Amino acid sequence: MASLPKTMKAVFIQKTGGTDVLQYADVPVPEPKEGEVLVKNEYIGINYIDTYFRSGVYNPPKFPYILGREGSGTIAAVGPNAPSDLSPGTRVAYLAQHAYAEYTSAPANSTVPIPDSIDTKTAAASILQALTAVTLIRDAHEVKKGDWVLVTAAAGGVGLWLCQLLKSVGAHVIATASTEEKRNLAKANGAEVLLEYHEEDRNLFVKEVLEITGGEGVHAVFDSVGKSTFDSSLAVVRRKGSMVSFGNASGPVEGFSLARLAAKNVKLVRPTLFGYIATREEFQSAAKELWSFIEKDGFNVKIHDVYPLSDIVRATEDIQSRKTTEWARANCPEDSARLPAPRSYEFLRVDFTKGKLHIGSISRKAKKKTTETSKVHFILNRWRPGKVFIMEDNHDRVDESDYHNIKLHEPFSWIWPSLSDPIGMEKFISLINYVFELKG
Fold it and tell me: Which intervals hold domain Enoyl reductase (ER) (predicted)?
């Protein structure tokens, strides 16, 4: 440890909140404990789950808390009893807390050497989401050549990896995504059939999938959307197939009768990545399979952008506004620029009566009274996700401009009762940011 610096740059929080709670400053370089290795980071992964820890949806174990959960770089030092294949100078990728820093002390059990043929940027863009996809098609449901597989949200991070992996093993991929642009992206990454999910007529979606598969249905569904797609996804699984539910983008799946599974002997799986790679042997096995896929098949590892660590606010904004259909990565080390200050409020208007969402700019200055009572205004500070102000139209008239209408993917009632709850609040913000690219 003598040759290592005593301090390093890191991004951390002293409390939960919006992006204004992010701090970029010097902190002590950690010393690897038994069974750990100290990695000098070259690239770190930026994932949506990081915003949950920052905002308080998930509770950080203690403060100050350095964010981040994956990265790649070179081992700078090792703790006692570190494995022999993890020695100083070895290029590695890892899954561990506190990645938003120049150095991270990572457990050896979740650290793996990077082959010479793969660079550290590609490794950092692969380790979390791609390993998730590998375990889904290998452990949650073993996909075989010729299988029909449905992937929802196929243009997301895990979705794009699934499309490529499934094509690599010879499966037929049916992909759904929210826009034509995203569906085309899924096609470019291996999807064979593109479908628009019909929220208003789910029977039409089921009919289309059954027609494509000769009336049999798919061998497996990999669904990261949750509540809004679960019923129709389960309906298109063939006899002895698998329904793999690994996400809740539209909300948690509601309760249902297990008799629905018995009708076709369907297997329902709710997997997590870390449940499949709990031991070093499991982690190494999955990682080696991933490296093999990348080396053999020349996977398309797209990276949305590379940010300096000091620009973590902009990176977080892009993640939260759903600009990133690919993978975002921060690069270390970097300059010591200050974090930008929080921006102005975002204003939203919700019309419950027509089941539509109206979004646009609303003046902060109240105008004359109005007799309208059917609309409620949410004044949402985008940079402090826990703060929402409610104003009814019959109290004040507000100026409105540049409004857009869109039908909600879900009835708005599932969000409304939860606005006082941090998790409900995060769902609300996620939906808004998913539908629109909010302007600061």
Answer: 17-325
Which of 132-146, 334-348, 421-435 has the lowest average pLDDT?
334-348
Q: What is the pLDDT of residue 92?
A: 98
Both 267 and 350 in a single domain?
no
Helices (H) and strands (E) in the chain, counts: 12, 21
Residue 290 in any domain: the answer is no
Q: Are 157 and 189 in contact (CB under 8 A)?
A: no
Position 39 confidence tier, pLDDT thresholds 50, 70, 90: very high
* CB distance 301 to 125 below 8 Å: yes
**Would you give the DSSP letter of residue 101?**
B
Q: What is the CATH classification number for the domain harbouring 233? A: 3.40.50.720
In-domain check, residue 292: no
- Are 327 and 363 found together in one domain? no
- The single-letter DSSP state of residue 48 is H
- Which of the residue ranges 9-23, 147-161, 302-316 would you say has the lowest mean pLDDT? 302-316
- Residue 384 pLDDT > 70: no
Q: Which tokens hold the place of 121? A: 């940027």
Q: What angle do CA 403, 406, 409 make, to 5 degrees?
A: 145
**Residues 62, 90: one domain?**
yes
202: exposed, middle or buried (Cβ count in 10 Å: 0-12, 13-18, 19+)? middle
Q: Which domain holds residue 85?
A: 7-125+301-331
Q: Tally the domains of the chain.
A: 3
Distances (CA, A) of 398 to 78, 344, 365, 403: 61, 17, 7, 13
- Taking residue 230's Cβ as centre, other Cβ atoms within 10 Å add up to 22
Spatial CA neighbour of 179 closest among 440, 437, 423, 359: 437
pLDDT in tens, 221-258: 999 988 889 999 999 999 999 999 998 777 778 888 89
SS3 content of the chain, % helix, strand, coil (to 5): 30, 30, 40
Residue 159 confidence (pLDDT): 94
Buried/exposed 356-370: b ≥16 CB within 10 Å, e otherwise: ebbbebbeeeeeeee
Q: What is the mean pLDDT of the chain?
A: 77
317 shares its domain with 396 = no
